[in-house]
Amino acid sequence: MKQSSREKVDWDAVTAESTIESIGFDSLSILDLVYDIQQSFHVEFEAESLAGVKTVGQLADFLKSKMA
Amino acid sequence: MTERRRVVVTGLGVVSPLGLDEATLWQNMLSGKCGIGMIRAFDTADYKTRIGAEVDNEQLCAAMQARGLVSADRTVDMALAASGQALQQAGIIGGNPPYTPKDLATIFGSGVGASQTMYNSFITFTQKGVRGVRPTSVPRCMANAITAQISMRFRLTGPNYVTVCACTSSTTAIGIAYRMIHDGYADKALCGGSDTAFDPATFAGWNNLGVMSKNPDPGKACRPFDAGRDGCVLGEGAGALVLESLESARMRDANIRAEICGYGESSDAEHITSPSPDGQAKCIKAALASAGMAPNDIGYINAHGTATKANDECETKSIRLALGDTAARIPVGSNKSFFGHLLGASGAVELIVTILGLEHKKVPPNLNLDNPDPACNLTLVGEYGMEVSSPVAMKNSFGFGGNNAVLIVRRWED
């Protein structure tokens, strides 16, 4: 996420409740995030399946389910 | 628009193999230091030419970080670093972001665009197929990523685009910016160029084309106008200039570095790589006419001087064709022996060096000019450089594809 975000973020303050948007992701940069996650964690999913994922915690849960 | 306005330079920025600021670059050139070395960016074991002039990675990263800039692509990064210097020097921006919107056009030249990101993208495609291509490779690899990023990061709200015409790219960009302001379409513009050819595939093309020097000695290989020259040496870098109308500069009490007096352009319409003296001479004459000047107004020529057999001989002919009897006594120098051929960035960086020379009333030497080629019968600046008191200089650029671009620049004297 650090690599893909375009905003200056206080990463130490990010919690599971932080929204993904607040860490500087818009509709374009979220594509980079999805790509980096797919390449790094070797998981396959369509960007659309992230529709309901709004927070960092939800993202972590989503990834866990893909890797299970 | 029928307004005709004087155009001045109020800011400079440079990222070069001999330093990431104008003072370091200038000092290195005066002391005869050559920025060409063994290429470190990739393994050159299979290449006929293994030398080039590279920008120091650590210094580039430091420059980006110092300005709070996130890395995008090497060509883009160099352009951003140079732009930040120029904009800050001109007093358009302060140190770090956030920046407020400013009405400047952004016009940069580049021969190969975001070459490293494109190379990485194609490699990923061949390795991982369709799904392996990063979705944002579209806005990352497009050639106008250079000016798009500059415009976005520094909040410049004038038009932004990249001019692509090989070695003339940044001279053309500066010429267009000059005309925009001269003819009243803009008050201020950020212009320049950025290029790098140091990825394995782009460099392989150059390797196989056969125009680069095969001399393995980095300090001796690039020999513009020398009888023993055997080809060019590539370099990477970026140059940025803030141009504005004299009125605008005076109104905000900006520090004026130089005046751009004229710009000429033409095409050879002959051969895709071999130059033609007629096309080049036409361009030089157009530049003089644009500046309202005669050949004997020119005090120094910063040549294209790539150190290929073809270019230097042709450039000699075109200078003589265009400037007649005066040609014989105007000192001519090429900067490429110092930092190689910066391709689309060469015009901008070499114009900056020319401006520094006008300010200091002194021009750097032609390195490796041990035995001037009789076919290059011009007054060539020797190994110790030369004092030049004349306030007017000409910057030549002649590119693959036959496009030619020449700028006339004058030392600013209040």
Structure commentary:
The complex is a heterodimer of chains A (68) and B (414). By secondary structure, chain A is mostly helical. Chain A has one domain (11-67): Non-ribosomal Peptide Synthetase Peptidyl Carrier Protein, Chain A, CATH 1.10.1200.10. Helix content of chain A is 37%, strand content 0%. Chain A is built from two helices and no strands. Chain A has helices at residues 29-41, 56-67. The longest helix of chain A is centred in the middle third of the chain and has 13 residues, at 29-41. Chain A is globular and about 30 Å long. Chain B folds into two domains: 7-251, Thiolase/Chalcone synthase (Peroxisomal Thiolase, Chain A, domain 1, 3-Layer(aba) Sandwich); 263-411, Thiolase/Chalcone synthase (Peroxisomal Thiolase, Chain A, domain 1, 3-Layer(aba) Sandwich). With 414 residues, chain B is of the alpha/beta class. In chain B, a hairpin with a 4-residue loop joins β14 (392-398) and β15. In chain B, the strands form three sheets. Chain B has an eleven-stranded mixed sheet, with helices on both faces. In chain B, strands 2-3 form a two-stranded antiparallel sheet. In chain B, strands 11-13 form a two-stranded antiparallel sheet. Chain B is globular and about 60 Å long. Classes of the chains: A mainly alpha (68), B alpha/beta (414). Chain A binds chain B through residues 6, 8, 28-29, 31-32, 34-35, 38-39, and chain B through 68, 70, 131-132, 134-136, 139.
Mean pLDDT of chain B: 96
Tell me what portion of residues of chain B adopts beta-strand conformation: 15-25%
CATH architecture of the largest domain in chain B: 3-Layer(aba) Sandwich
Strand content of chain A: under 5%
Global outline of chain B:
globular
Quaternary organisation: heterodimer
- Strands of chain B, total number: 15
The proportion of residues forming helix of chain A, as a percent range, comes to: 25-40%
Number of domains of chain B: 2
Distance between the termini of chain B: 28 Å
- Main beta-sheet annotation of chain A: none
Q: For the record, give the distance between the C-alpha atoms at the N and C termini of chain A, rounded to a whole number.
A: 21 Å
Largest interface: A-B, 10 and 8 residues
Radius of gyration of chain B, CA atoms, in whole angstroms: 20 Å
> Total strand count of chain A, please?
0
| Secondary-structure content class of chain B | alpha/beta
Under CATH, the homologous superfamily of the largest domain in chain B reads Thiolase/Chalcone synthase
Number of domains of chain A: 1
